[in-house]
Write a structure and sequence with these properties.
By secondary structure, the chain is α/β, with parallel strands linked by helices. It is built from 22 helices and 14 strands. The chain binds adenosine-5'-triphosphate (ATP) and magnesium ion. The site of magnesium ion has 4 residues, from helix 8.
Length: about 450
């Protein structure tokens, strides 16, 4: 048992009629643990506090009616029950859902032993990096990215992961975390920068000292401190408003943080990984993102390719892998995805990338599970909405892949024609084509269209 097992923990004590709170405080006094007297109060709303919380509940609190236990209140926080009687009394009186029970006269060692065990489980859970989930990568561009990620995983430089929505940026961040020989042992703290309520940035990132404002009944570590010894993953960093960018930058420059209401500055020690689906360079140019922060975050940049760039091989592999996991236990069905289905899956486009493709696989898997067979008509009908959204299909449903490739050629020409007609102004061409500027830009990349390329002047049908 090490001190770090207890680090960041909050213990919420519902003591009922007896002096359990004081004893817990005493037993844990040598460690950096928040012990909160929770009688009459629910757990705080903040899931980042609760992920490191353990409840210590005296059964007398329930018996005396001072606490009505509902699972909603505990929000999945593990519970140590303290019995109403001393150890020589029968411990079997507790129902089986009371997994962790201490006698009323528990010793400090017993309490610490049990808390340490639960803390280890919490930590193992929080750094569980979907190891049992496969990370599918077959295409050359994806293998290259993995190679790059592997190379940079075990260094301390800040990494910025770029890529469209659903391409797997968070999975890559977790791979980086796992690959660091030291930080992998610490927590992986993921923060969605697009969801920080106004006015809460400081409290959430810096933490606050006990009593620093009304309602601050106990001290709270901010995200920076929570990530100590591990990885701080700043997701959707492009959504961080400018006034919050300044605050983030200052902390990164100082490499230290001071909790609100405290004067002690705490040194930071974590690996910083950020991710965005926005074009941060463009945002720097337009003044929406601070350039100094950008250069600090993007010491190393990793670009995750989208599914179209990854190609049919990856689409099929991801689909099969996920369908198989849905069909686990259904003998034989998982191994034999029929050819017509792989062709269909490969021919569709997925603007929501891997996430959307996995949803498609899920839907198919459920159908096959329920019907016990690969029902072509049923599955095709279920996939129609996605199929209809695929640009190639939207314009006349090409029957097979050869047709699709011909269509692709036509699409390239139509795009060049639209750009020509609008003097290569992308905004106008995109509008003409009925697509967003971003999609136009992606298609230009996909078809390797360079500015000013000679094309077909006829725009008919575009
Ligand atoms: N290579 C992969 N193999 C298997 N599953 C993957 C792979 N990449 C991503 N996924 C799965 O796809 C889903 C989306 O991944 P993730 O959340 O990492 O994407 P993201 O780029 O962070 O998305 P967003 O921009 O919406 O935040 C997750 O369920 C993830 O497990
Ligand atoms: Mg994400």
């Amino acid at each position: 048992m090490t001190t770090s097992n207890f680090d960041q923990l909050s213990l919420y004590v519902w003591e009922g009629k007896v002096d359990i709170y004081d004893r817990v405080v005493q037993c844990m006094s040598a460690f950096d643990v928040d012990v909160v007297h929770a009688d009459g109060r629910p757990l705080p709303e903040d899931p980042f506090i609760n992920q490191w919380a353990i409840a210590v509940i005296s059964v007398t609190a329930i018996e005396s009616g001072r606490l009505t236990l509902n699972p909603e209140m505990l929000k999945g926080v593990p519970v140590v029950w303290v019995g109403a009687s001393a150890r020589d009394r029968d411990a079997q009186i507790y129902p089986p859902e009371y997994l962790h029970v201490l006698p009323y006269d528990f010793t400090g060692a017993e309490l610490r032993g049990m808390i340490a065990k639960l803390a280890r489980q919490l930590r193992a859970h929080s750094t569980r990096i979907d190891e049992e989930e496969v990370f599918v990568a077959r295409s050359a561009c994806m293998l290259e990215l993995l190679e790059e990620a592997r190379t940079f995983a075990n260094c301390d430089h800040n990494v910025l992961i770029r890529g469209e929505t659903g391409v797997g940026k968070e999975r890559i961040a977790q791979l980086l975390h796992n690959g660091h020989e030291m930080y992998a042992k610490g927590p992986f703290v993921a923060v969605n920068c697009g969801a920080i309520p106004d006015g809460l940035f400081e409290s959430l990132f810096f933490g606050h000292a006990k009593g620093s404002f009304t309602g601050a009944v106990h001290a709270h570590k901010g995200y920076f401190e929570q990530a100590t010894g591990g990885t701080l993953f700043l997701d959707e960093i492009g959504d961080l408003p400018r006034y919050q960018q300044v605050k983030l930058l200052r902390v990164l420059e100082d490499n230290a943080v001071t909790r609100i209401g405290s004067t002690t500055s705490i040194r930071l020690d974590f690996r910083l990984v950020s991710a965005t689906n926005r074009d941060l360079r463009e945002m720097v140019r337009s003044g929406d993102f601070r350039s100094d922060l950008f250069y600090r975050l993007a010491v190393i940049e990793l670009q995750v390719p989208n599914l179209e760039q990854r190609g049919e091989e990856d689409k099929i592999a991801i689909f099969k892998s996920h369908v198989q996991s849905v069909l686990q236990g259904k003998d034989g069905l998982g191994d034999e995805v029929p050819f017509w289905l792989t062709e269909l899956v490969a021919s569709m486009e997925y603007p929501g990338n891997v996430r959307q493709l996995r949803n498609v696989a899920e839907r198919v898997g459920v159908i096959v599970r329920q019907t016990g067979r690969w029902d072509q008509a049923l599955i095709q009908r279920a996939l129609e909405p996605v199929r209809d959204m695929t640009p190639a299909n939207a314009a006349g449903h090409p029957a097979d892949l050869a047709d699709r490739r011909r269509w692709d050629g036509n699409e390239r020409n139509r795009i060049i024609a639209a750009l020509n007609q609008h003097g290569w102004k992308r905004q106008d061409a995109a509008q003409h084509l009925g697509i967003s500027r971003k999609v136009l830009w992606e298609k230009m990349r996909k078809y390797q269209i360079n500015d000013g390329e000679p094309g077909i002047p006829d725009i008919a049908g575009a």
